[in-house]
Amino acid sequence: MDGGGVAPTTTASWLARHREMYKRATRHPFTVSIRDGTVDLAAFKRWLGQDYMFVQEFVAFLASVLLKCCKQSESSDMEIILGGLASLSDELSWFKKEAAKWSVDLAGVSPLSSNMEYRRFLQSFGEPEISYTVAITTFWIIETVYQDSFAFCIEEGNKTPPELLGTCQRWGSPEFKQYCQALQQITDRCLANAPSDAVKSAEEAFLRVLDLEVGFWDMSSPERQQNPQKPSTVQLLE
Ligand SMILES: Cc1ncc(CN)c(N)n1
């Protein structure tokens, strides 16, 4: 904190400390290619099919976050998380409609290795030992990466193809940004009250999500997947 200033929240300090990693996840060549209009539609379709599978697992993940919340936190948190869970029903319908539009056969999609890795990570939240603080941090950063990535695709100066604008608006809208900010406030409140080992685990989960998101975007392009431009292990700087 500089003289007389307000101390940054924990999430703000992580976003500053790990900005390079955050940028790799939110300004990935795949989403940047959507924004600059050069996106390979085969890559977009691959992402669409894989993300549908991801969201199916995300439902169970969010149910586990909700369960942890109900056991130990405030009812206002519960309502916000429940809203997110309810909206996944719409999201799954959206994927089915979009897949039909792009002739992607969702029944024929099987998860690629980065997706399987991400899904295994989400499944681990079913373990009761993982705290609500770590779970809500994870939920916040997963949503924030999509919000920031797709908001960039509809910001001024974009050349996003018109047929992809609906996708970008789904996560890039001001309403979704507000939702992510509400999650960030909950996360900061939990972190402020958590013991230091839980804060450390939450920061590790934050970094793990950024790493998994980069891997997920890489999956959209076979060349990048074979030659990923990311550090395989993320270490905390103490
Ligand atoms: C991989 C991934 N990350 C985040 C989101 C946003 N819920 C998503 N649909 N897919």
In brief:
The chain has 238 residues and is an all-alpha fold. It has 11 helices and no strands.
Give an overview of the whole structure.
With 238 residues, the chain is mainly α. It has a single domain (10-222), classed as Up-down Bundle (Heme Oxygenase, Chain A). The protein is built from eleven helices and no strands. The chain has helices at 10-17, 19-26, 29-35, 41-72, 75-101, 113-123, 132-154, 165-172, 174-192, 196-218, 222-226. Helix 2 runs parallel beside helix 10 (196-218), helix 3 (29-35) packs parallel to helix 7 (132-154) and helix 7 (132-154) crosses helix 8 (165-172). Mean pLDDT is 93; it is low at 229-238. The chain binds 5-(aminomethyl)-2-methylpyrimidin-4-amine. Residues 51, 54-55, 58, 142-143, 146, 213, 216 line the site of 5-(aminomethyl)-2-methylpyrimidin-4-amine.
Core attributes:
single chain; 238 residues; mainly alpha; Heme Oxygenase, Chain A; 11 helices; 72% helix; disordered C terminus; binds 5-(aminomethyl)-2-methylpyrimidin-4-amine
Number of domains: 1
Helix content: over 70%
Please report the first level of CATH classification, the CATH class: Mainly Alpha
Mean pLDDT figure: 93
Q: What general form does the structure show?
A: globular
GO cellular component, one term: cytosol
Protein name: aminopyrimidine aminohydrolase
Organism: Brachypodium distachyon
Catalytic activity: 4-amino-5-aminomethyl-2-methylpyrimidine + H2O = 4-amino-5-hydroxymethyl-2-methylpyrimidine + NH4(+)
